């Protein structure tokens, strides 16, 4: 298959089924996982509790009463088809799957789901946090990571001819490791070469998003093309939030639907609910940052799928948008957050 160039993609979007006019994206979820395996490497030898979730197990699993490694496996294509169909019925049109290196990406599976559901699926590329990466990556150069990501956009990813439409989610943690910094530096090169946007998974520390933003600013990155994810589990201070927004990056609130305070990945954190997320978004809008805000759900637990009693991919469209209207968000603001901002970020420059 022909290797694409920047000119081939400029002004267009790229899904797992090919290049499209960005006007086709419509209502979009910018950060989800449709097919992946996000189990911690240490959990894969354990009994895979949590694959089939009974009603009596739903709350104990979500509240961390016991470890359920199977809850983090998204490897059933037909289940994904059913769940994405429900999202489409709720009004969603496009899903960005950011299951990159270390999370067992399945490009061919995503293409299958897109065909079966009639939705647009955009695939990310690159690598997740250090401990999930292939051990061979430790000895790789920045340029090798850059060329890999460029190839994933221009030629195909993970041994297929299915191309990525975004870079990320590039994994970081606290403290930020040397390997993760190399991957990030490679992602900057790939971003500049391809014109794709960059999505970042920051470490679970309130100062780490700013650390990454400062790293990118020193490299003269176009921060309007940088999305920093998971802010709703990371920053709980307005001064820090506004300082990050002032870098020009996109602030992503992507845990919509997680209504309980318990956060299994960092028990020191008290998660907000959807109402508090919208209050944070409102404060950013009032400060002039509406074009720098993204909303999504980052679904990567089976217990969040509708089959197992969860809210599903359509939650934002089915529940949150009506709530926004009741809380005074205008139709223009809703469209900016869920259509216009994603369209800009998914359009190659």
Tell me the number of helical segments per DSSP (H or I, 4 or more residues long): 11
Radius of gyration: 19 Å
Order of helices and strands: HEEEEHEHEHEHEHEHEHEHEHH
Binned strand content: 5-15%
Average pLDDT value? 97
Total strands: the figure is 12
Order of strands, widest sheet:
8-9-10-11-12
| Proportion in helices | 25-40%
Structural class, judged by helices and strands? alpha/beta
Low-confidence stretches: none
According to CATH, the fold-level topology is TIM Barrel
What is the second-level CATH architecture? Alpha-Beta Barrel
Tell the overall outline.
globular
Which CATH top level class fits?
A: Alpha Beta
CATH homologous superfamily descriptor: Metal-dependent hydrolases
Integer tally of domains: 1
Give a quick account of the main beta sheet: strands, pairing sense, barrel closure.
Answer: 5 strands, parallel
- Ends: how far apart? 23 Å
């Amino acid at each position: 298959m022909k290797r694409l160039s920047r000119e081939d993609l400029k002004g267009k979007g790229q899904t797992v089924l090919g290049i499209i006019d960005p006007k086709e994206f419509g209502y979009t979820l910018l950060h989800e996982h449709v097919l992946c395996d996000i189990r911690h490497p240490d959990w894969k030898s354990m009994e895979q509790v949590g694959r089939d979730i009974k009603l009596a197990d739903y709350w104990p699993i979500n509240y961390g009463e016991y470890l359920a490694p199977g809850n983090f496996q998204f490897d059933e294509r037909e289940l994904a088809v059913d769940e994405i169909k429900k999202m489409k019925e709720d009004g969603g049109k496009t899903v960005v799957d950011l299951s990159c290196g270390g999370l067992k990406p399945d490009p061919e599976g995503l293409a299958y789901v897109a065909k079966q559901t009639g939705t647009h699926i955009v695939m990310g590329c690159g690598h997740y946090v250090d401990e999930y990466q292939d051990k061979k990556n430790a000895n790789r150069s920045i340029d090798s990571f850059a060329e890999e990501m460029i190839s994933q956009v221009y030629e195909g990813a993970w041994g297929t001819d299915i191309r990525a439409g975004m870079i990320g989610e590039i994994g970081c943690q606290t403290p930020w490791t040397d390997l993760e910094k190399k991957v990030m530096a490679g992602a900057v090169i790939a971003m500049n070469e391809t014109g794709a946007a960059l999505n970042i998974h920051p470490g679970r520390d309130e100062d780490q998003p700013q650390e990454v933003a400062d790293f990118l600013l020193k490299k003269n990155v176009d921060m309007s093309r940088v999305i920093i994810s998971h802010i709703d589990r990371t920053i709980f201070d307005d001064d820090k939030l506004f300082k990050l927004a002032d870098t020009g990056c996109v602030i992503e609130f992507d845990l919509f639907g997680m209504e309980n305070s318990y956060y299994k990945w960092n028990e020191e954190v008290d998660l907000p609910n959807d109402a508090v997320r919208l209050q944070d978004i409102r404060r950013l809008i009032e400060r002039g940052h509406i074009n720098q805000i993204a909303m999504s759900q980052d679904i990567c637990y089976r217990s969040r799928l509708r089959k197992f009693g969860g809210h599903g991919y359509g939650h934002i469209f089915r529940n949150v948008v009506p709530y926004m209207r009741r809380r005074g968000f205008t139709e223009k603001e809703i469209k900016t957050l869920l259509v216009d901002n994603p369209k800009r970020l998914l359009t190659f420059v």
